Amino acid sequence: MAASFLLLLTSVGLFLSAQAQDCSKPVGGDNMDLKGDDILLQTFPDGIKVTFACNVGYQSVGGSASITCTAAAWSPLRMTCERKSCGAIGDVPNGQVDYSEGIQFGDKLTVTCDPGYDLVGNSIIQCGHEGWMGRLPVCEVKHCDPPVDPTIGSFYPVKETYEYREVIQFSCPEPFTLNGSKSLSCSETGVFQPAAPKCVQVECKEPVVKFGHWDSGSRGPYTYKTTVMFKCNEGYRMTNSATIICGINSQWEPELPKCEPVECEEPVVKFGHWDSGSQGPYTYKTTVTFKCNEGYKMTNSATIICGSNSQWGPELPKCEAVPAVQTTTTKSPEATKKPTAPDPNGGGESLSTGVALGVVLAANGLMLLVHNYWM
């Protein structure tokens, strides 16, 4: 009896011991830790309840944050944590906000200003636990100092400073001409662009064209943008522009006209050859006379002249083949008879009573058949 009771007590003790086992330190999900002092403990007694909290920069998106130790095992943890979002920070006048990293905890944004504006403040802001960690910078417009006063001329408006894209205008007094841009603009670099112009006095020299003469335009003085047109003398042709303009640097633009002698190409006549006149070079009014080869005849003018347009005139001579002459015969009935000597008594036939005429093309020329005799 005593032995049975002792065995019962031992079994109950073992059962109670198994039911009351401690739990080891629980492991939470991503981006969370035990809350409070529980994070310092390594073991937890049976029946204890612990709570997890999301790490800094993270927030719970649902599920229970607490678990319970039961017989050395923890109940399931249902909570999940995700990064907090800072949202959009807002607009920056005259600037741009770059969210290429994102808008969640730990991400950074970058602010840049438009051309012509300077950034005042921090250009990089980080998303923190409580939101964006810093104030938005501002973009302030650039300013330009006024240009140096010109020696000759003036500009307007005159101010102590000019904002980005503000424009000033230059002008020159008579008889000076503005060399450069009339308008300057305050650029994104804080400097007026383009470079400031200058007031210059423009006058070109008298233009002289060899083998040419004035045709129209100014007779002088030759100030800025004065135009003159030239013409080449007879027998010469223009090889570039006939019109020139006095440029801002007191030089004629483009280069002065050039007059070169008119020259025709070597004339070639098919089935013909040179007879007289020039044999080259063939300048203006040069004449050449041609002759057709044997067996050919000229169908137009044999003489040509080199014209002012470097063309031969009238058209080049033309040589055409002479057609072969075929044999033709005309006979009287009496011509078929044999010729006889005159009848001393007046009888018989005279040669004049029968005549055969014809022309035959022979190798050695033309032969004429008269009264049945080849001549």
UniProtKB/TrEMBL annotation:
<feature type="disulfide bond">
    <location>
        <begin position="292"/>
        <end position="319"/>
    </location>
</feature>
<feature type="domain" description="Sushi">
    <location>
        <begin position="142"/>
        <end position="201"/>
    </location>
</feature>
<feature type="domain" description="Sushi">
    <location>
        <begin position="262"/>
        <end position="321"/>
    </location>
</feature>
<keyword id="KW-1015">Disulfide bond</keyword>
<feature type="region of interest" description="Disordered">
    <location>
        <begin position="325"/>
        <end position="349"/>
    </location>
</feature>
<keyword id="KW-0768">Sushi</keyword>
<feature type="domain" description="Sushi">
    <location>
        <begin position="21"/>
        <end position="83"/>
    </location>
</feature>
<feature type="disulfide bond">
    <location>
        <begin position="54"/>
        <end position="81"/>
    </location>
</feature>
<keyword id="KW-0677">Repeat</keyword>
<keyword id="KW-0325">Glycoprotein</keyword>
<feature type="signal peptide">
    <location>
        <begin position="1"/>
        <end position="20"/>
    </location>
</feature>
<protein>
    <recommendedName>
        <fullName>Sushi domain-containing protein</fullName>
    </recommendedName>
</protein>
<keyword id="KW-0732">Signal</keyword>
<feature type="disulfide bond">
    <location>
        <begin position="232"/>
        <end position="259"/>
    </location>
</feature>
<dbReference type="InterPro" id="IPR000436">
    <property type="entry name" value="Sushi_SCR_CCP_dom"/>
</dbReference>
<dbReference type="InterPro" id="IPR035976">
    <property type="entry name" value="Sushi/SCR/CCP_sf"/>
</dbReference>
<feature type="domain" description="Sushi">
    <location>
        <begin position="84"/>
        <end position="141"/>
    </location>
</feature>
<feature type="domain" description="Sushi">
    <location>
        <begin position="202"/>
        <end position="261"/>
    </location>
</feature>
<dbReference type="Pfam" id="PF00084">
    <property type="entry name" value="Sushi"/>
</dbReference>
<feature type="disulfide bond">
    <location>
        <begin position="172"/>
        <end position="199"/>
    </location>
</feature>
